[in-house]
Design brief:
alpha+beta, Endonuclease, Chain A, 8-stranded mixed β-sheet, 31 helices, transferase, polyphosphate kinase activity, PPK_N_dom_sf, kinase, ATP-binding
């Protein structure tokens, strides 16, 4: 049956052949099942509206890809090819990817799925144009996916300039501050494109690809909550008027929002295509499926309906929308259903049903279908959709449309007027729940009149709406939360990696307050090991549990420890660090903790930690007024004979056992007096009114870190001008501080070799003649999140010979870190540690697998030309480049895993098990078996080696099965447990992957 709709798009809803059919069919069936919906539309361009033939948009549940674009076929065909640079140009679609529905002539045709196109009454020319447009858009997406594997973003970013020849005559000042060269929001989205490229990589296991896709979704959620929220706040207070005075190359908040919206639309298209066409079919090969309600037979549908009646229906709160019933409260990142109703008198009604967050999003329906659990899943919103009649009896359900909302997390605060920071942050957490909306996600089957109604209720504009193909679920960020049974084929996940205990910490015992002096003397003590020399642990290659966590536990129990001072920015929900600090307080030690209450999205958790610590008797501070305390530092004061020895831990990452399993971070233990004095002065600043600008070994923000970094760069510039060897290598998460970037540009002009390893946003545009031809920028995206920050300067100015200075710490070279946070970067003195960091930096620069090369066009590349740059890199003193051969062929992470295994193997051959048993029998039981000699290929698969050293206990029943896989949560939480056979220090709860994202602010 073909129905001619009215003169407005609001009439384009689920039109059925009769009222009886409308009652029988479920809402989603009305729009999708057994139908093909063709909408006749025209493009937005007023000048050419009358010159172009009508275009068609298709919604079909039978198709894996939603052919829904409305741009002119001529431009689609032109865009399906690559431009001169071999890059697909999305902008050739005519400015906007969706046309505008022509209200005066919308034609809706509803036919059965198997009806031939000829039966629609379309002319041959119209059919040809339809086929041309849908095939053209499909070719664009396919071309973009191919480009994505080698170039990110695959489309030229909105508003940016790729032809650097236009800027070669600009001065450094204007070049650095030009939004066409660098815009923080567009650079952040470029980072997310690189994460999405990992999801597109067919060399990565299927479930890991799903995980990368989910990470890209969570990143977008955070991006809208923080960055888009901040832009909207700037726009509301009139920042755009101030921007106009700064020049034409500076974008206003409104323009930035429009560019961001266009870029996110493209990204959502690629996300959906990856899921629908690649990842979902790959998982289906292993019988893991996210089903639709229509995939179930009648018997299963009835079982699911009974489950819904027992466990879901009582929780639901269906809300009519009318003058007596206002729009309901919707939490951020929640999903709801917009329901179109018709009462017995044919009056149109509207309602909203929130999908409850207290019920799992993905319902395991395997047991209802007599299948294995952990294989078949059904989205909760589809169950609600199919049973909507139970909520609105007496009404006809015309249609249901799922949507998802995101709220602003950028809440303005005034610390200067706050009398109590704890109370202020508690109020902020409550206020944020009701913050304004910043994003609306809808499925592409939602009619315009429903979308308009939601936009009006949520106070959003058209560019705040993201449309997702209905064949893909809303909220890509939770895709990897499906409770999959991990008794699966090894090919679905990465080869398992269990962090190893650092060779110098193997066999270390935790002190006991009840042990006798003789017993304590016989134990190997972590403090005694630190006195032998500084120790550098590298997570997740080294175990967090047997290093940092053991350090806290030893300090809490050792009767000679007098004081513990530490900073906490983020930690796990059931943190063993918190438990150790409370235990230390119970044991009579002086414990002082700075808990940063302003850590974004962790405010509520940190408020709870602060209250727990205060209740236990710890001295708790809430941070420094006006800035965030982001440094990672701990000071333990221990009485040894007649003197006090200060043990210091300085790290690049949080004291979080969960993220320590997937974030790459350094932690350095030392008891050298200079570091101890610096730590004492640092905590006097953090806990009191002490101000100290200069330290012995530390560079501290906001006092002096920015100026110190600029001075170090200027020293390299001076050395280069004198003809000495000059180079800088820096690794960080983000780089946007204008002063630092201008210094790097000056260094390049002076001939200094500058190598920057920047995971996320980067203000530097390398390879521009006369400005940055001596700068190289790479970004590494892989199974572990690159998170450590370290810096190397050649330092040949004084003697004419290289005497490298190496620093590590918590600070990125971002304006916020350098001026608005307390950060600590420490000078590394120990020669072995310096070489270890240098080796890691060299491995990054030759990485031929994970590294992306930033080009002069502002995009990242993995092309053969980019790989050739990595191949030319040569090792610099004092590093020996021992990781470089493996990093070049297998990637940075594989090279570091191999290196850790080799070091463990060497440390075990230095002493025999029998010799240790003669000293103390209990150590013999803990010693792992001597590792067999393995090839590099074998060593790159560490889960097949040293089975006894799994970071979490394996029962005898499970270990007997060679194909038994640990759960993903066990893998994430692996660092929370020591190696089997070593003393269990503490246990931690499992933290969901939903808490882990490739965050720019971790």
């Amino acid at each position: 049956m073909i129905v001619l709709a009215g003169s407005s798009v609001s009439s384009v809803s689920s039109v059925c052949c009769s009222q009886q059919q409308r009652r029988v069919l479920r809402p989603r069936q009305q729009f999708c099942r057994r139908r093909l919906v063709l909408l006749r539309v025209e493009d937005d361009d007023d000048d050419s509206r009358n010159k172009r033939r009508p275009n068609f948009v298709v919604h079909s549940s039978s198709s894996l890809f939603s052919k829904r674009r409305t741009s002119p076929s001529s431009k689609i065909c032109a865009a399906s090819s690559s431009n001169n640079n071999g890059v697909t140009n999305y902008n050739q679609l005519g400015g906007k990817r969706r046309g505008k529905l022509n209200g005066a002539g919308v034609v809706t045709k509803l036919v059965k799925k198997d009806t031939q196109f000829e039966q629609l009454g379309l002319s041959p020319d119209e059919l040809e144009q339809y086929n041309q447009e849908t095939a053209g858009y499909k070719s664009i997406i396919n071309a973009a996916l191919e480009v994505l594997l080698e170039t990110c973003p695959p489309f030229i970013p909105e508003g940016t300039e790729t032809d650097v020849e236009r800027f070669k005559d600009e001065d450094i000042e204007s070049f650095t501050l030009n939004d066409k060269i660098f815009n923080p929001e567009m650079s952040w989205l470029a980072f997310n494109w690189r994460v999405l490229a990992a999801a597109a990589d067919e060399n990565i296991p299927a479930f890991e690809r799903l995980r990368f896709l989910a990470i890209s979704g969570r990143n977008l959620d955070e991006f809208f909550a923080k960055r888009v929220g901040a832009l909207k706040r700037q726009e509301s207070v009139g920042v755009g008027n101030l921007v106009k005075k700064r020049g034409k190359n500076i974008w206003s908040p409104r323009k930035t929002l429009e560019y961001v919206s266009a870029e996110v639309e493209k990204m959502s298209d690629i996300q959906a295509e990856l899921y629908i066409e690649q990842i979902a079919p790959s998982l289906a090969d292993y019988n893991i499926r996210i089903l639709s309600h229509d995939d179930m037979d009648k018997e299963t549908v009835q079982k699911v309906r009974e489950w819904y009646h027992d466990y879901v229906e009582p929780i639901l709160d269906p809300r009519a929308i009318d003058p007596c019933h206002p729009f309901p409260f919707l939490p951020s990142l929640s999903i709801a259903l917009a329901v179109e109703l018709e009462d017995a008198y044919s009056n149109e009604k509207f309602a909203v049903v929130s999908v409850p967050s207290v019920v799992d999003r993905w319902i395991d329906v395997g047991e209802f279908m007599d299948e294995t659990k952990g294989k078949l899943f059904l989205p909760l919103e589809q169950i609600l959709e199919a049973n909507m009649d139970t909520l609105f009896q007496g009404c006809n359900i015309r249609a249901c449309h799922a949507f998802r909302v995101c709220r602003n997390a950028d809440v303005e605060r005034n610390e200067e007027e706050a009398e109590d920071l704890l109370e202020m942050m508690s109020d902020e957490v409550r206020t944020r729940r009701f913050a304004s909306f910043v994003r609306l996600e809808v499925q592409d089957t939602m009619p315009e009149h429903v979308k308009d109604r939601l936009m009006k209720s949520l106070e959003l504009r058209s560019f705040d709406v993201t449309s997702v193909p209905h064949a893909a679920p809303l909220g890509f960020g939770v895709l990897d939360s499906i409770d999959v049974s991990f008794e699966m084929d090894d090919a679905l996940v990465f080869d398992h990696w269990s962090p190893r205990t650092h060779p110098r910490l193997v066999g270390i015992d935790v002190p006991s307050s009840s042990a006798s002096e003789a017993e304590e003397m016989s134990k190997r003590n972590i403090f005694d090991e630190i006195k032998k020399g500084d120790i550098l642990v590298h997570h997740p290659y080294h175990s967090f549990a047997t290093s940092t966590q053991a350090f806290f536990e030893a300090a809490a129990r050792d009767k000679d420890v007098l004081s513990i001072k530490s900073t906490l920015y983020r930690t796990s929900s059931n943190s063993p660090i918190i438990s150790s600090l409370i235990k230390a307080c119970d044991n009579g030690k002086n414990v002082a903790v700075l808990v940063e209450l302003k850590a974004r999205f962790d405010e509520e958790r940190n408020l709870g930690f602060a209250e727990r610590l205060e209740t236990a008797g710890c001295n708790v501070a809430y941070g420094v007024k006006g800035v965030k305390t982001h440094c990672k530092a701990t000071l333990v004061v221990r009485r040894e004979g007649e003197k006090l020895v200060k043990y210091v831990h300085l790290g690049t990452g949080n004291y979080n056992p969960s993220t320590a399993g997937i974030y790459t971070d350094y932690g350095m233990f030392t008891c050298k007096e200079e570091y101890g004095e610096d730590a004492v002065n640092l905590f006097k600043f953090l806990m009191g009114h002490h101000f100290q600008k200069e330290f012995n070994r530390l560079l501290v923000a906001p006092q002096s870190l920015q100026s110190s970094m600029v001075d170090l760069i200027e020293n390299e510039i001076t050395a280069a001008k004198k003809g000495y060897k000059a180079s800088i290598t820096a690794k960080m998460n983000g780089l946007d501080d204008p002063e630092i970037c201008k210094a790097f540009y000056r260094a390049s002009q002076a001939g200094v070799s500058v190598n920057l390893i920047v995971r996320g946003i980067c203000r530097i545009r390398p390879g521009v003649p006369g400005i940055s031809e001596n700068i190289r920028v790479i970004s590494i995206i892989g199974r572990f999140l690159e998170h450590h920050r370290c810096f190397r300067f050649e330092n040949a100015l004084q003697t004419g010979k290289a005497d490298p200075k190496i620093y590590m710490g918590s600070a990125d070279l971002m304006r916020r870190n350098l001026l608005h946070r307390v950060e600590v970067v420490t000078l590394v003195e120990d020669e072995r540690i310096r070489c270890e960091i240098q080796d890691m930096l060299d491995a990054c620069l030759v990485d031929g697998v994970l590294a992306w090369e930033l080009g002069a066009d502002g995009r990242y590349h993995r092309t053969p030309e980019a790989r050739a740059i990595a191949a030319k890199h040569s090792s610099q003193d004092p590093g020996k480049g021992k990781l470089m051969p493996i990093a070049a062929t297998k990637g940075l992470h594989a090279s570091l895993m191999v290196d850790v295994l080799k070091k463990r193997s060497k440390s075990k051959t230095k002493q025999s098990v029998a010799g240790i048993a003669a000293k103390n029998l209990k150590y013999a039981a803990r010693m792992p078996k001597q590792a067999m000699v393995k090839s590099a290929e074998d060593m790159a698969q560490p889960e097949k080696l040293e089975k006894a050293e799994s970071a979490f206990p394996v029962s005898s029943s499970s270990s007997s099965s060679s194909d038994k896989r640990p759960s993903m949560h066990e893998i994430i939480d692996a660092n929370a447990r020591p190696i089997e056979g070593e003393k269990v220090i503490n246990d931690t709860s499992e933290d969901s992957m939903d808490d882990v994202a490739f965050d720019m602010e971790v």
